[in-house]
Design brief:
Keywords: Hydrolase, Metal-binding, Zinc. InterPro entries: ArgE/DapE_CS, Bact_exopeptidase_dim_dom, Pept_M20_glutamate_carboxypep, Peptidase_M20, Peptidase_M20_dimer, Peptidase_M20A. By secondary structure, the chain is an alpha+beta fold. The protein contains eleven helices and 18 strands. A hairpin with a 7-residue loop joins strand 1 and strand 2. Helix 1 crosses helix 11.
């Protein structure tokens, strides 16, 4: 079988050698990005980090545009033209989950074989791998593409509510999109992701004196707990989604019948039908009878739809494994319960893989890390994979794809 990777014009040694060359100084660049407070709630900080990265994109040969979008710091779009036909998308984000002050309190540092710091894994290291992979191909003189489009989002950590439509518009026509989130801690890339819904259930009751006139109250806390227990039992046998009751708040003090209670529920989606099933269940939990005088309210926001491993994604993952094997890199693809912007792109039918960044883990915590030794191999892998990406009109030709078996 004549697989795409076997037609690549560059040897693995060439790619590895150039990757080692172009990534020289990557740690200093990463330190500069990590040293900026750029939690999503700080759009000025996110804009600063994005503008710095945009400058590096321009230095690498991209035509860069910043797209302001109300409610966030917008999108940065780098476009590079070639002499071929294939259109390749790279996607990442420059926001983090950390509050202001974290960059100063926890600057990037080496701990043994790890680099630790806020955002090193999620996902500033991945942004650099994407940029360097393009530089590898340019250094090798590869121009067999119509366009490489690198999109950097400013609000992925909060669901991309303001940017998602424009992001989808920018990447829907690609032959493939490679998302630059970090690889799993064991090196796996990601070929399927859970979708994410945030559900807020609120019970509105009526306050009263718990000792003198309890009968005049309507206990919102009790009613909310009853509904959550019912919801948990109903969801226990579900295979298309999973719930986690994360927070419960309500009441003012022990001698007052509480007039309000609220719960936040995280829902992970594993099937295309999961959203409609969740919607039906939420309608049921709100409408079922309960304590007289208590009214239930549900606010359901979909952060990400599920990214389903379909046939095209399976073949793209097989191609990635083949490219990795030619470079001497062991590689598998896996699914994960976390969502990312890959979910939005894959839902549009675009062949999409995630986890193409460096190897890392412990995201969103004080020990978030990447493995520095993975930067050159992952840059090499992404460069080779980009150069082997088939055109959309070849995706129907079985002979142009690995079998995946």
């Amino acid at each position: 079988m004549n697989h795409p990777a076997s037609r690549n014009p560059f040897t693995p040694d060439q790619i590895r050698s150039v990757a080692a060359d172009v990534t020289e100084g990557w740690e200093e660049r990463l330190r500069a990005l990590v040293g900026i407070d750029c939690g999503t709630q700080n759009p000025a900080g996110v804009k600063r980090a994005g503008d710095i990265f945009a400058g590096w994109m321009a230095d690498a040969g991209f035509q860069v545009t910043h797209l302001p979008i109300e409610g966030c710091a917008g999108l940065w779009v780098g476009r590079m033209r070639g002499s071929g036909q294939r259109r390749i998308g790279l996607l990442g984000h420059c926001d983090t989950v950390y509050p202001d002050g974290t960059a100063e309190a926890r600057p990037m540092q080496r701990r043994g074989h790890r680099l630790v710091g806020p955002g090193v894994c999620d996902m500033k290291g991945g942004l650099l791998v994407g940029l360097y992979a393009v530089q590898v191909l340019r250094r090798l003189g590869w121009e067999d593409f119509g366009e490489i489009r690198l999109v950097v989002n400013s609000e992925e950590e909060t669901g991309s509510f303001h940017t998602r439509n424009r992001m989808i518009e920018l990447l829907s026509g690609m032959d493939a999109v490679y998302v630059l989130e970090a690889a799993r801690a064991n090196g796996d890339i990601v070929s399927a992701r859970a979708g994410v819904i945030q559900l807020i259930l609120t019970a509105h009751g009526r306050s009263a004196h718990a000792g003198v006139e309890p009968e005049k109250g309507a206990n919102a806390v009790v009613e909310l707990i009853d509904r959550l227990q019912w919801l948990r039992k109903r969801a226990a046998d579900e295979e298309t989604f999973r719930i986690n009751i994360g927070t419960i708040q309500g009441g003012t003090q022990s001698n007052v019948v509480p007039d309000r209670a609220e719960a936040q529920v995280d829902i992970r989606l594993f099937h295309p039908d999961a959203v409609s099933r969740v919607e039906a269940l939420v309608r049921e939990v709100v409408s079922r009878p309960g304590i007289s005088g208590v009214r239930m309210e549900a606010d359901m926001k979909q952060w990400f739809p599920p990214m389903i491993r379909n046939t095209v994604i399976e073949r793209l993952a097989a191609l990635a494994r083949e490219c990795a094997a030619s470079l001497g890199i062991p590689l598998r693809d896996t699914d994960t319960g976390g969502g990312s912007d890959a979910n939005w792109i894959a839902t549009q039918g675009v062949p999409c893989l995630d986890g193409l960044g460096p190897v890392g883990g412990l995201d969103h915590g004080p020990d978030e890390y990447i493995e520095p030794e993975s930067v050159v191999p992952r840059t090499s892998l992404l460069a080779l994979l980009m150069s082997c990406t088939p055109l959309a009109n070849l995706r129907k030709a079985e002979s142009d794809w690995p079998s995946g078996k």
